[in-house]
Each structure stands twice: as structure tokens, then as C-alpha cells.
Amino acid sequence: MNPVVLTGVAAVTAGAVAGPLIVTGIVGVLGFGSSGIAAGSAAAGIMASSGGAVAAGSACAILQSIGAAGLSVAGTAIASVAGAAATTTTAAIAAIVVGIV
């Protein structure tokens, strides 16, 4: 198989799998979790910046929803596409630098 095609397929697959995992991981590290917003975390700072009242549909509310329940089907799809695009772009640049193409 052509190494460029193989690299592209591998990049798309890796990015599509890793994208949602990276998003949920970052949300968790920020302090948005299944038991609520962690005290002293970045999430707590975000919530405090709004005076403690979080509007429905706000970034804070969406992130807490992801932290509590995970990504929705649409969110998973978006994260997968973004991950695939990022890894494919990186693989393409690497192929050019290494001289495969």
C-alpha cells in the first residue's frame, strides 16, 4: 500500500478515536466532574466569575454537562472530526518534512 495513503488512514483513525478522549480528559482536568465542580479548580473559578449563577447553555453549563455525563452523540462526532483533522494535518506535514511526498 502507498505509504502516504497508509499514513493518512492511520492518522484519521487515531484522531477520530483520540479526539473524544482528549476532550473529556481536558474537561475533567479543569474540574468538571460527575459529582459536580471540584472546589479550588479552574471550573470553580469559571463558576465564581459568573457570580455562582450559571446560565443554561453557557460554556460553564455545557462543560459541566460533559463532565457529568460525557459527550453527547453530536459532541462525540464533532470531537472525532476535529481529532481526525488535527492528526491528518500533522501526518501530512510530517510526510512532507520526511520526504515521503
List the helices and strands and how they pair.
Elements (H helix, E strand, L loop, with lengths): L2 H28 L1 E2 L2 E2 L4 H8 L9 H11 L3 H26 L3
Antiparallel strand pairs: 1-2
Subcellular location: Membrane
Keywords: Membrane, Transmembrane, Transmembrane helix
Membrane topology: Multi-pass membrane protein
- What is the number of independent domains? 1
Helix content: over 70%
Mean of all residue-level pLDDT scores: 90
Instruction: Show unreliable segments.
Output: none
State the separation between the terminal residues, measured CA to CA. 14 Å
Structural class computed from helices and strand pairing? mainly alpha
Q: Order of strands across the biggest sheet?
A: 1-2
**What's the Cα radius of gyration?**
18 Å
User: How many strand segments?
Assistant: 2
The ordered H/E elements are HEEHHH
Query: The biggest beta sheet, please?
Result: 2 strands, antiparallel
Taken as a percent bin, the fraction of beta residues is under 5%
Number of helices: 4
Written account of the structure:
This protein is mainly alpha-helical and 101 residues long. It has one domain (3-98). Helix content is 72%, strand content 4%. It contains four helices and two strands; from the N terminus they run αββααα. A two-stranded antiparallel sheet has the order 1-2. A hairpin with a 2-residue loop joins β1 (32-33) and β2. The longest helix is centred in the N-terminal third of the chain and has 28 residues, at 3-30. The radius of gyration is 18 Å and the shape is elongated.
